[in-house]
From TrEMBL:
Domain Gfo/Idh/MocA-like oxidoreductase bacterial type C-terminal: 214-314
Gene3D superfamilies, alphabetized: Dihydrodipicolinate Reductase, domain 2 (3.30.360.10), NAD(P)-binding Rossmann-like Domain (3.40.50.720)
Domain Gfo/Idh/MocA-like oxidoreductase N-terminal: 41-170
Top-level division of the source organism's lineage: Bacteria
Organism: Brevifollis gellanilyticus
GO terms of molecular function: nucleotide binding
Name of the protein described by the UniProt record: NADH-dependent dehydrogenase
Amino acid sequence: MGLNIISRRHFLGRTAGLAAGTFAGPNLLLKGQNAAGKKLRLAVIGANGKGQSDTQGVTLDHTIVALVDVDKKRLDEAAKKREKHHLDSGKEAPNAPKLYQDFRKMFDEMANEIDGVIVSTPDHTHYVAAMHAIKHGKHVCVQKPLCNYIAEVRDLHRAAKEAKLTTQMGNQGRTMEGQRLAKEWIEQGAIGTLKEIRLWTNRPIWPQGPLVKKAAECPAELDWDLWLSSEASEPYFEFEIPAGVNGKRGNSVHPFNWRGWWQFGSGALGDMGCHIMDATFSILGQIIPEKIDATSSPISDTCAPVWSDLVYHMPAGKHGALKVSWNDGSKDGKPNKPEISPHMTSELAKKAFEKASSGMMFIGTEGTVFEGEAYCGSPVIYNEERYTQVRIDTKAGKIKKTETRSVMPNNPQGEWAHHVVNGGLPSSNFDYSCPLTEFVLLGNLAVRAQQSVQWDKQGMKVSNAEAPNKYVSRPAYREGWKP
């Protein structure tokens, strides 16, 4: 398993044979540089917000040649922030990148000047932006979730694999030490036999639920038509926030509150699932559930719910068949969290659980691996005596490090760029992150179906009902957007 990473020499030979005017792949031997000193030429689509931190992950070691953002004001801010990041790091900022509002125009004008592309747009534009990059032969790093429809995830995976490109999803927990420790502990018997997994998050922290669009004046600096990208043209809108819905983030869909709308985002589950479910997916051997049960607050055809409860029924694999539960949002003003593990009986354990707004519990017959945040960065074991013994066994070599470590922990963009230059697989390459994203989105499929769904992985369809299958693929793409 894994992408077929081609050597720089082979890649040059392949791209040199492309006819003039066709899509060109990146030149991996710019100016005679060797791998150790190689600076990639990178473009960032969705340059502000999360795109800004993604830019900071690579800009000191590589060259940002283009920034793209549909909001002119935010685009200019992103360029200034990048320059400040260089100056604050004690390094002179290189030449300013070219600025675009339309990534299609960027590819038309300077595709041959780009080696790789980072995509940090709202979810609905991930697929079209990444596919444009792939069809131009560019390595891609795409924010989580890779797409908000399962069919798009599969198509993106296929295209990148056929193009033999280096890929990555921006779920930083996958690069961290903690997730690997949790997997090693569980596989080597630190908590006995794994029996159940409980996951939760306090998201949504944006308006979500029974929202109603209302016409509004579009901000002058925003190109709303480009923001919609592949979605059908419609007037700019804001929305009314009903009682019981978190309205702290305001009522504007741009630049943040798009997450709760099915057409643009993927709700609390899509936002945080690729983080919180990541360790689970890895520990269980990257398997896909057979059935998903779902209950939630009222939903609509347009918006995700205020809260949801899911149960993923996992087949036997590296571990026996078990259930993975997911809880998000708030019920009656209280966090929608699972019950605490029976192994977490001490006051220290109870306080840790109470404090955790997001987290995970891997419950075994003899103990529980607990993490009170989203990335599984610093897991511990309860009860405390068992954790002490695990640390003693690790020091004595009885519990071994068996997982490959990341070359750049907590920097998925930097890790991706490193492997573009040096070969090898990033931690969350598409062979890993596409099935992980599908795992996550199956929960949304069940929520939207408002029933239990049985998933036919090979057929990419719900097998126990026909109606939910309309949520597997995006309904339509606006002309001029699907690559």
